[in-house]
Write a structure and sequence with these properties.
Layout (H helix, E strand, L loop, with lengths): L16 H12 L28 E2 L6 E2 L3 E4 L3 H10 L5 E2 L7 E7 L5 E7 L2
Parallel strand pairs: 3-6
Antiparallel strand pairs: 1-2, 4-5, 5-6
């Protein structure tokens, strides 16, 4: 059986496409999609990717039910949280460490839920 080799993109609607792309670049280091084929796109590091449906996804920040949440792996969760909070972005830390690592949550300017994950080595 042939299998996919990874996620090639995540496409979602935005009211302010350019502004939201700039927010992800400035706060999470995700480069916008290039406008030409000569500029390399943002590249992720190899690592675990979980792809699974859930009966319901709750936003830990607002408590509302969501259609999806993006989980980003980070090397240093504390440094990432400090960077985001210095930019005035509210971040909620998980109350505990889990066997697979540490987590925190935030929302982007359009209310999309983001989960940050520092995997255990």
């Amino acid at each position: 059986m042939e299998k996919v080799t990874g996620i090639g993109g995540l496409f979602f609607a935005a009211k302010d496409v350019a502004g939201l792309a700039a927010w992800y670049r400035d706060n999470l280091g995700i480069d916008p999609v290039p406008t030409d084929y000569d500029t390399p796109p943002w590249t992720t590091e190899a690592g675990v990717t979980v792809f699974t449906p859930f009966p319901s996804v709750e936003d830990p920040v607002s408590g509302t039910s969501l259609g999806f949440r993006v989980n980003f792996r980070v090397r240093d969760l504390d440094a990432m949280i400090a960077q985001l909070e210095a930019a005035g972005i509210a971040v909620k830390r998980a109350d505990e460490d889990y066997p697979n690592g540490r987590f925190a949550w935030l929302t982007d300017p359009e209310g999309n839920s983001i989960e940050l994950w520092e995997p255990k080595p």
